[in-house]
Design brief:
Largest sheet: none
Structural class: mainly alpha
Oligomer: single chain
Number of strands: 0
Shape: rod-shaped
Number of helices: 6
Radius of gyration: 32 Å
């Protein structure tokens, strides 16, 4: 009978060991599942953050491209009559403002509502600057002495300052959305 008790205790110990091992395996499996799920979520968040950053950078690049062409427009003379030769800086500026509109539209999909609104305002301010320059050019057709920026200053045009302020608001909103204003993000703070 003692042999039976020994066999029974041995079998019970084996079953208890299997049960404990199974419980630990189950707990470990659940922990690994949670970690994998957390890693997938972090990966998706990182991909979304990168997509946002790329969309924001596209707006900044398009804005800078427009700046280059608008500099040429403002430094130019008023456009003459419709029969005059083509106007490359104007055509380039029009194409650049269209690219800016496309980039702003991408931000409306990828970005936060605050950044999307700032991107739209930036596009509108750039479009308004081009429209203002075009209006001044038409009003002063044939003027071969004054550059457009001189005419804009004389007419009290504020589109350039509005445009510069809109770009600053967009960059500030984009930095905030990407966490650029978070403590420890600023490279000046890292050097301390």
């Amino acid at each position: 009978m003692a042999d039976r008790w020994i066999a029974l205790v041995g079998a019970g110990s084996a079953l208890a060991g299997v049960g404990v091992t199974g419980a630990f395996t189950l707990l470990k499996g659940r922990q690994e599942t949670r970690e994998k799920q957390r890693d997938r979520i972090e990966g998706r968040q990182m991909l979304h953050r990168e997509a946002r950053r790329d969309a924001y950078l596209e707006v900044v690049r398009a804005s800078h491209e427009f700046d280059e062409y608008m500099d040429d427009v403002w430094l130019g003379l008023a456009v003459g009559l419709p029969d005059d030769p083509p106007r490359p800086p104007w055509d380039d500026a029009e194409a650049a403002v269209k690219r800016l509109r496309e980039a702003a539209a991408k931000v409306s999909i990828e970005g936060t509502s605050e950044v999307a609104e700032a991107a739209h305002d930036l596009w509108v301010s750039n479009y308004d600057a081009l429209h203002d320059a075009n209006r001044l050019s038409g009003e002063n057709a044939g003027n071969t002495t004054d550059r457009l920026f001189v005419l804009a200053d004389a007419n009290g045009s504020t589109t350039e300052s509005v445009r510069i302020a809109a770009r600053g608001r967009f960059i500030a909103a984009a930095r905030a959305a990407l966490g650029g204003d978070a403590p420890g993000f600023d490279s000046r703070e890292l050097g301390r």
